[in-house]
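Write out this protein's structure.
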Amino acid sequence: MKASLSVAFMIFSLLLAFTTKTLLVLGAQAQLYPVIDIDGDMVVAGAEYYLMEWTGGAKSVNGGLDLSDRGRHQTCPLDVFRHTTHTFGRALTFSPAVETQENVIYQSSDLNIKFTGAPPICNNTTTAVWKVDSYDEKFGKWFITTNGVEGNPGAETLLNWFQFENLTTEAKHAYRIVHSPGGVCETWPHLSSNLGVYETDDGILWLIFHIRKDFLGLFPL
């Protein structure tokens, strides 16, 4: 098995996916801070976007995210993976745990992430909502899978919530994705960490809940 790595993402709007404009970061760290797409527009609930992995340069990205039936189950629900080529993958929508003015998505706020439809293989038997899967003893990982529940924040849906956190880098429009759902149920124990990628022997880059001691709490790269 290959090593797992933390990843950061840029957000591309569906209609303007090929733009190369850089972004502005709005607000202050102590305030509500909108998530910004590659065109400089605020990300809003319900609109379609692509997530592309940021590779370190101001405009450098790898492949986007998608679903695969080549994984652990080879059936639905399908797991999330990153394309190894420069392809946009499957479009996504975001929905916050708490309704916001003008449906704006804010950083460090709990939200659901959902692909815009699962592949035909699933026959509408599962949802395309992301969730952290149960610990996989064979791989020693928590994979990001689908068939989560959209909405209904609480103890029963803790594994379905994620957040965008801005990176303090030259690419101010790059974000890490974090699973830290304390805001939806403060009294319930939960794990908190970045999402990362894990390459299996067949070369597929799976999205995982990336537990590393130095990542907990401050979520550094």
